[in-house]
Specification:
Elements (H helix, E strand, L loop, with lengths): L6 E5 L10 H7 L4 E5 L17 H15 L4 E6 L1 H15 L7 E5 L10 H7 L3 H7 L2 H12 L8 H10 L3 H12 L6 H7 L7 E6 L7 H10 L3 E6 L6 H4 L1 H15 L5
Parallel strand pairs: 1-2, 1-3, 3-4, 4-5, 5-6
Helix pairs in contact: 2-3, 5-8, 6-7
Length: 264
């Protein structure tokens, strides 16, 4: 969707889907071609019965998609786990001598070893698969959003329903647990060592009170990524696209206009 010769590829977080980006679509689509990816196991994507659901596996699929598409002029936009995947994809393309992103936009990105959020930890425990199968999708969605939002923000019924739709059915719940159980990449230390080799302009966007991926992660990334800028939104948790949609969009649009402007 969208227009223009430059592409933006969007990667959502754990338990989410392309709905994450709805508040940015219309404006960014005026000047860029948008690729709103549903990662394997989520949204409308396939959920095959295999063991390849780690962030490393998902990053490999995105890398293969980008190489196969021969996309030459693109940016990567990632939220939470999707931000970590965007970093891994960029490093993989760089190491392979392939075309790398012209820009990165990382929103509350998973990037370093940290304390695993309680809800994700619970999904990794023995017996969690059975418990998740019995829990209505709407309840799972509401719990995930409540854990992610700043206390002053409340998800709308429409937002809860949209995420619940992506978690409906036993196969969807099974896939969610597969990813949650593997959410820390086995090669995380290697990925971290590669961050200083990433050269593209990078926007780091964080909620000041992010309880899922704390602000210190953004501050450390700002030190490790040579051409990065860190913007922090007050009264915001882990989901700026939903909690502060207008403010977050203005920051992103300004960054793109300066560092990855529309062609022509």
């Amino acid at each position: 969707m969208g227009r223009g010769d430059r592409h933006l590829v969007f990667l959502h977080g754990l338990g989410a889907n392309r709905y994450t980006w709805r508040s940015w679509e219309e404006r960014l689509g005026r000047e860029y071609r948008l690729h709103l990816v549903d990662l394997k196991g989520f949204g409308t994507a396939d959920r095959p019965r295999d063991d390849f659901y780690s962030p490393t596996d998902l990053a490999r699929e995105v890398t293969e998609f980008l190489v196969a598409s021969s996309m030459q002029d693109f940016g990567l936009v990632g939220h939470s786990m999707g931000g970590g995947i965007a970093l891994a994809v960029t490093s993989a393309l760089n190491a392979a001598g392939k075309t790398t992103p012209g820009a990165l936009i990382l929103v509350g990105a998973a990037a370093y070893p940290q304390t695993i959020p309680n809800l994700v930890h619970a999904a990794r425990l023995p017996g969690a698969g059975f418990a998740m199968a019995l829990t209505p999708a709407r309840v799972l969605a509401r719990l995930g959003l409540k854990a992610s939002y700043h206390p002053m923000h409340k998800p709308t019924p429409e937002t809860v329903a949209a995420y619940a739709k992506g978690l409906a059915g036993l196969r969807a719940r099974w896939a969610l647990r597969q990813v949650a159980a593997r959410v820390v990449p086995e090669d995380l230390e290697e990925l971290v060592r590669a961050y200083p080799r990433i050269q593209c302009p990078t926007l780091l966007l964080w909620g000041n009170e992010d309880r899922v991926i704390p602000r210190w992660v953004g501050e450390r990334l700002h030190r490790d990524l040579r051409d990065s800028e860190l913007r922090v939104l007050e009264q915001c948790g882990h989901v700026p696209t939903e909690e502060r949609p207008r403010a977050s969009l203005e920051i992103v649009a300004d960054f793109l206009a300066r560092r990855f402007p529309p062609s022509g």
